[in-house]
Design brief:
Layout (H helix, E strand, L loop, with lengths): L1 H32 L4 E8 L5 E9 L1 E10 L15 H7 L16 E4 L6 E3 L4 E2 L5 E8 L8 E10 L28 E3 L8 E7 L5 E8 L1
Antiparallel strand pairs: 1-8, 2-7, 3-6, 3-8, 4-5, 4-7, 9-11, 10-11
Length: 218
Amino acid sequence: MHGIRRRRRLAAVVAAAFARLSAATVLTGLLLAATPVQAECVEVSAREGWQDFAFLMPVDRISRITGGWTVDKANYTPVGAGGHVGDAGKKLEPFSAYKYDTALPFGALLVSEGEGFPHHAVSGPARFEPGQVSNLRMRINDTGLGDNDGSLSVCFEAASRTAPASAPPAAAPADDTQACSSAKGCISVRERWNEESDTEFLTTFANGCDKRIYLRYC
């Protein structure tokens, strides 16, 4: 009876230790996987030309664009980053000479990496190619700024550089005197089997290493 109780206590200790190890490993993976991205939002005014922005850290994409602006507050309701299109776009066609880029709609959001660089119209979430940028300039597609109104909030993000959620399996130790895991507590790893006080376990550790070890209750 004493031997049975002893083995049950040992089994309970081992189960609790490995449960703590597994929980810690899973939690670490979740924390790494859930590390938030870095985000920064800026306001682009419809009443100014090119507006330069320097980011606190390099960004690699536009995550969202909100707000509204118009190239003629007296006659046209505010629109988003896509600019005045449809009926409004047709009515504005006679004034296309006032566009900054005549090939794009009035009121489109223009984005450039800097003076001398080409510009692009951006109407929604987009990723920069080939990678991250630290400075950008933006403006509304209009040169007659006096009757403009509104602004757009443009939000940028850059994924945090973190370790992968699951690391590759660690190499197994050369002998049975070391465990593959870092589980501690009332568990000791022994070199040989003792029928009276030890119990043999074949287990898969959290790092993926199969290892036959001898665990002793202490």
